[in-house]
Amino acid sequence: MSEFNEPNPTLSENDTEESLNTAKETAECFDIEKVAELFASSLLEEDDVLLDAYLAAYEEIMRFFQLMGSIFGFVSSDVRSKIDILYELRKTDTEEQKNFETFKAMLVYERDANLLTKKGYVSGSRTLLRLHRGLEFFYEFLKRLQDLPNDEKTANVCRTAYDDTLGKHHAFLIRKGARLAMYAMPSRGDLLTRVCQDVQSAISKLPEMLANTRRAYDRTEQLYTLHDLHNLP
To answer: How would DSSP label each residue in 147-197?
Structure first.
């Protein structure tokens, strides 16, 4: 399985405009409040995360990637496949379902059952790790986006967020293609208008969404560190 797919590096600003408009016609708007609520509800006790709520939040993030059109092609298709893999694990027989209810349960179960390196087995722990890395990119991009003036292009903050997160896990050619595609990113104002139904409401709710996203991210990071699973192949 690839980390994320290679983007189309030949997009012009006109291509981007058309891509974003087409994407918005075929998808609902991105709901920042929903992401905040779902990530908050995913937190279990002091050190665990509920898989179902996390995936529901990621479905909304997936909507954001889709609304951005071809620019984020390097992430959206693989995010979809990884979400679906985890859904399938949640559909296992009743006896095994409990092993995939939370992140901690899944990591411990797959490790203790020697499934992490089992040939032919699609590991939930490995799949979640890829989503975890994608979530860091999403978080860093929106965190940096919130401080931009509306008329400023988002290409630079998108590139730096990518370089600091997902780019560290990508091969050279994928990094090069992703960074080239980002040159066609719109201004902050245009981006928010295209992905959010009510821009002012979205801006006011962004800090809470970022805080809850970070909490879910940090818990996941701690679990992978605790079980020494950051380097799953």
So the answer is: TS-TTSBSHHHHHHHHHHTGGGGS-HHHHHHHHHHGGG--BHHHHHHHH-S
Q: What is the tally of structural domains in the chain?
A: 1
Q: How far apart are CA 79 and CA 134, in angstroms?
A: 8
Is 50 domain-assigned?
Answer: yes
What average pLDDT does the chain have? 88
Measured in whole angstroms, the distance separating CA 50 from the mean position of its chain's CA atoms is: 16
Q: Is residue 53 part of a domain?
A: yes
Q: Which residues on neighbouring strands pair with residue 153, listed in sequence order?
A: 187
Give the residue among 33, 73, 22, 58 at the shortest CA–CA distance from 178: 73
64 in Cβ contact with 76 (< 8 Å): no
CATH number of 133's domain: 1.10.3520.10
Residue 52: inside a domain, yes or no?
Answer: yes
pTM over 0.90: no
Q: Is residue 109 part of a domain?
A: yes
Q: How confident is the model at residue 72 (pLDDT cuts 50, 70, 90)?
A: confident
d(CA 209, CA 38): 9
For the chain, the straight-line distance linking the first and the last C-alpha, in angstroms and rounded, comes to 10
Domain range for 73 is 29-227
Q: Measuring CA to CA, how many Å separate 187 from each of 16, 102, 151, 168, 190?
A: 12, 38, 5, 25, 5
Cα separation of 89 and 13, whole Å?
A: 40
Residue 201 identity (one-letter amino acid): S
